[in-house]
């Protein structure tokens, strides 16, 4: 399996930032770009080759990552003029041959369990799997009883799913991408055809997902990344109160482990999820569990776990 990133868009809604750099190189914290985050996701999966499908200012991406970066080999397929995602993916599939491909849009950030996504995709009968996420209303919702307004809900999560821009494409369906279509984008050409053949699967997971398509979404991503460090197990995030470190929040994805030491704090509180402590089934935890940290504590998540560490 190889990784691939669609990074050829103009990023018009992020101008003037994208006048000088492609959207994938926009920083979500100092010296840490959207693409840096995506590369880490691939690295932690053990992917050794990443194909960058670039266009606008694609040379800036090559300047930053070169041919080898952080132990990963980079390959660049650059369009000289916009040709659409169908052309980009056809070019990719012709280049990689019979490899399965994990492909993602270059402007998305997500905390899903990528190992679970890969396992679900490989073991399913579908030729392609798409990450879907529940849609948040862009507006507040007015609730009524007849013609009487009863309450308001501020931009709630809706019972509708959207395409999240992450795909696992098996080599077995590559020929579908080379059919004749009337259009340039896979979302309105190839994907409906794969769905019609009942070969398109949906992967759902209740995790952070941000599509960085505007200044508002960029600020959301930057707010999320204040004090945050991405890790192989999830992330750790320092939260400050009055310019002093208050607590450190951890996200530990299911089937992953994190070790917390007394230097991090002397108390650990589970906010959600379940698992075991120090490898012992006798020391399980659930929501609300509080653990005193007198020596290193290893938390192994059986369900995705959020916890906080602090000093009393």
UniProtKB/TrEMBL annotation:
It comes from the Archaea. InterPro entries: Mannose-1P_guanyltransferase (IPR050486), NTP_transferase_dom (IPR005835), Nucleotide-diphossugar_trans (IPR029044). Residues 3-197 form the Nucleotidyl transferase domain. The keyword Transferase applies. GO terms for molecular function: transferase activity. The keyword Transferase applies. Keywords: Transferase. PANTHER family: SUGAR-1-PHOSPHATE GUANYL TRANSFERASE (PTHR22572). This is Sugar phosphate nucleotidyl transferase. It comes from Cuniculiplasma divulgatum.
